[in-house]
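Q: What would this chain look like folded?
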Amino acid sequence: MSTIELDAFLADSVASVQGKLYALGAGWSRISVALFPARHDRVGIGLLFRLPAGSANEPRRFELRMHGPADEELALGAGPEGPVNRIAGEFTAGGSEEQIVPIALNLNGLALPGPGDYRVVISMQGQDVKTLGFTVQPLAAQPRQPRQPPIPPTTGTAG
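A: My prediction, written as structure tokens:
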């Protein structure tokens, strides 16, 4: 059996359109909030499953979960039956040519109970294959940028 590769990233928002991922604000690893517990407007997760040529055309199952600073599994949202701790999906792909399957997930109103290190874990066929880590910190903990002296106005012309 050939190995499926997974590339994944965090963003402010992700959309999948006609076999491509479109990301807004991709590539971050830190969220700053004013108060805890906090609720973050949106966390986008982009997934790119790469299936090598010759892969069997069969269903493939993936699952996403998030762990908080105390390694507790966190709710990703709410459903009609209560909190949703895991998001699962399935796609069918494979064939004689390499295929890339893009999947966009957006978590709206994500609860962040406290400061610390968080991680999104993606598993495939029941095995963890990718971890995306990020830190949540109080707004006051952001490093301050040194104050730059003002730029003096120009007084002449170049010739």
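Residues 154-159 have pLDDT under 50 and may be disordered.
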